[in-house]
Structures are given as structure tokens and as C-alpha cells.
Design a protein that fits this description.
The complex is a heterodimer. Helices cover about 0% and strands about 55% of the residues of chain A. Chain A is mainly β. In chain A, the strands form 2 sheets. In chain A, strands 2, 4, 5, 9, 10 and 11 form a 6-stranded mixed beta sheet that branches. Chain A has a 5-stranded antiparallel beta sheet with strand order 1-3-8-7-6, with no helix packed on it. Chain B is mainly beta. Helix content of chain B is about 0%, strand content about 50%.
């Protein structure tokens, strides 16, 4: 069955460092992969989308890579800030762009001053 | 805040009851997807409505049903509630896919359902 795994339950880093979050998947060939941020008690907020034929995507301090051979995506936040503390969700879309997403369980990131 | 609203914000029901959750999509969006998020888990896709028709369903039983209205707002109905239905129910709206792939999806704040 399709499975998405995100690394560790919580990631603690120091302010100013780069946070790297991992998303691995099996038994799936998504055309698109998306990353979302979710704060406690709120709905997910879209951050970045990367297509299967793209290796890397950047947006301000965020960078996403997508390796369809390894079946892995890495999500980087450079120069992290305490305000980046949240849960980050990886989501796969094999529905031709209709956003019928399969989410991972998320990685909780805590950035300490 | 996105333009997606959900009501109610919280709801407490007992086993066997029925519940209706509502979602107003962002202006201009014709696609609404519903997700169930259990505590500590990622959202799970329930189903999607595209231009008032169901457009795909996840691994949820038929007691989960829905509809979409001409203004693209949507309802999620759950019959014969079970304890395991306790979760945060999220709706998300977007436009249908464009020529370059999916359009950005906006989530509402969710409805927290507790089944006792």
C-alpha cells in the first residue's frame, strides 16, 4: 500500500541554522509533491509545490528537492527563526493536479533562540 | 487567514448520531476537498467535489457523504457516528487543475468533532 514517512516526531534546532526535513514514500509515483505548514489548531498552509520533472524549487528561505529515483523529498529552511516553529506536512498528488492529496504525519519543528 | 470558512468550529456528538459540517470555499474556487485529521496524524482525504459532482473518494465508508452547491460551498455529512470519528475535519478549496498543473489549495480552520 502507499506509504509516506516523514523523519522523526520533532526536530529541535538553534535559531539561524538550517532545518532539513525528510519525506520518503513507497508504492507511489506522484506527479506533484507539496509541502504545507500547520500551526496548532489551524488548517495547513501551502508553502511549495514541486513537479516530478523538477529537481529543486526555492521560495525565499525555503528550498525543496524531489528525487523520484530515491522516492524522497527534502525540505530546507535556511536561517531559521523561532517563528518557523510549526508542523510541516509533506503531501503527494497523483491525481493529475486535482489536489487529492496523500499526507504524511508531519514533522514538528522547534527553533530555539 | 484564507477565504475558506468552516462551521461550526467545535461540535460534540454521541455515538450513533448524525452530523453535518459546512464549508464556504474561497471566491472563484470550484473544487472542495474534505480531509479528516486525527490527533498527531496528517490529514486523510475523504472525498472531493468538483463543479458540484463527486470527483474521487478516499478509503472512507458510505456513511461519509457530501454535496456541493451551485455557489461551490460544500457539506460533509457523517451518519451513525463512531468514537473513531473524533477528529479535526478540514475542507480545502482550489481551482481545478490548470495547464501547468495544480492550483494552490487553501484550507479552512477546521471543525473539531468529538464523539462521546
Amino acid at each position: 500500500s502507499q506509504k509516506i514517512e516523514q523523519n522523526s516526531e520533532a526536530l529541535n534546532i538553534q535559531e539561524g541554522k538550517t532545518a532539513t526535513l525528510t519525506c520518503n514514500y513507497t508504492n507511489y509515483s506522484p506527479a506533484y509533491l507539496q509541502w504545507y505548514r500547520q500551526d496548532p489548531g489551524r488548517g495547513p498552509v501551502f508553502l511549495l509545490l514541486i513537479r516530478e520533472n523538477e529537481k529543486e524549487k526555492r521560495k525565499e528561505r525555503l528550498k525543496v528537492t524531489f528525487d523520484t529515483t530515491l522516492k524522497q523529498s527534502l525540505f530546507h529552511i535556511t536561517a531559521s527563526q523561532p517563528a518557523d516553529s510549526a508542523t510541516y506536512l509533506c503531501a503527494l498528488d497523483g491525481s493529475g493536479g486535482y489536489n487529492k492529496l496523500i499526507f504524511g504525519a508531519g514533522t514538528r519543528l522547534a527553533v530555539h533562540p | 487567514e484564507t477565504g475558506v470558512t468552516q462551521s461550526p468550529t467545535h461540535l460534540i456528538k454521541t455515538r450513533g448520531q448524525q452530523v453535518t459540517l459546512r464549508c464556504s470555499s474561497q471566491s472563484g474556487h470550484n473544487t472542495v476537498s474534505w480531509y479528516q485529521q486525527a490527533l498527531g496524524q496528517g490529514p486523510q482525504f475523504i472525498f472531493q467535489y468538483y463543479r458540484e459532482e463527486e470527483n474521487g473518494r478516499g478509503n472512507f465508508p458510505p456513511r461519509f457523504s457530501g454535496l456541493q452547491f451551485p455557489n461551490y460551498s460544500s457539506e460533509l455529512n457523517v451518519n451513525a457516528l463512531e468514537l473513531d470519528d473524533s477528529a479535526l475535519y478540514l475542507c480545502a478549496s482550489s481551482l481545478g487543475p490548470g495547464t501547468s498543473g495544480p492550483n494552490e489549495q487553501f484550507f479552512g480552520p477546521g471543525t473539531r468533532l468529538t464523539v462521546l
